[in-house]
Amino acid sequence: VGCSQSESQEEKVTLIAHRGAKNLAPEHTLTAYNKAVELGTDFIEIDLRMTKDGQLISIHDETVDRTTNGEGEVSQFTLAELEQLDAGSWFSNEYQGEKIPTLEEIFDTFGKNTNYFIETRPMNGELVMEDELLRLIEEKGLKDYVIIQSFSRDSLKKIHQQNSEIPLVQLLYVNLTKEVREDEVKEYATGVGPYAPTIDKEFVERMHEVGLEVYVWFDNKDEKEFMPKVLSYGVDAVFTDFLDNTVEVMSQD
Ligand code: G3P
Ligand code: CA
């Protein structure tokens, strides 16, 4: 992947800023992403959703309720309607007027200055976002700067059929982690993304033996407990909600 990573860690663990620097600014805003890039993240994480008029935007929840001053399902808004919403005040008045960014705005803002860890998902059971995502990556010349992650095998398989060069990460739910069929995942993905408390050193070694990288995610509340453990297992990458702290801890190693 394009950007150079920090050389200061003993095993060079890749850092993914989960929803941007989400402890410092409202998640999934350009400001949160900008802070993450300034702090030296390797990747910014983007949770994709699609508007009623087919535009890809970055927002985690199915509804706008938690992270904006609006109400309702994201898929029922046009982009023009979503642009009227304030995506910053819920976090702090200082961020009043922040917008939900489109994927294109994020790509245009950061270009090749960072890498993008992009999560796809079916919407209402349909694989609607993959074609537009691949088109935008191609148009912006960013294929070497992107990893695509999903809990949906079908989404990743659809992407792999159209473009076998982009690295894909199969996210794993808590109760699937021990059941991963690595031979099946290997057919389309380059890595797996398990939930931190569900893995042990043996799992990481097993994935590495078959050539799958391990990208670990946390629940906000358990990151501080499990980060040192998973790093000791030799994982390849971690999502972090506390990027400033994680960068500091790793730079001390
Ligand atoms: O994408 C990995 C991790 O972010 C999964 O959890 O719910 O924050 O997307 P979520
Ligand atoms: Ca995510």
TrEMBL record:
Domain GP-PDE stretches: 13-250
Keyword Ion transport carried by entry: no
Record-linked SUPFAM superfamilies: PLC-like phosphodiesterases
Keywords: Signal
A family per Pfam: GDPD
Family annotation (PANTHER family): GLYCEROPHOSPHODIESTER PHOSPHODIESTERASE, GLYCEROPHOSPHORYL DIESTER PHOSPHODIESTERASE
Source species of the chain: Ornithinibacillus bavariensis
Classification lineage: Bacteria, Bacillati, Bacillota, Bacilli, Bacillales
Superkingdom classification of source: Bacteria
GO terms of biological process kind: lipid metabolic process
One MF annotation (Gene Ontology) recorded for this entry: phosphoric diester hydrolase activity
UniProt-recorded name of the protein: Glycerophosphoryl diester phosphodiesterase
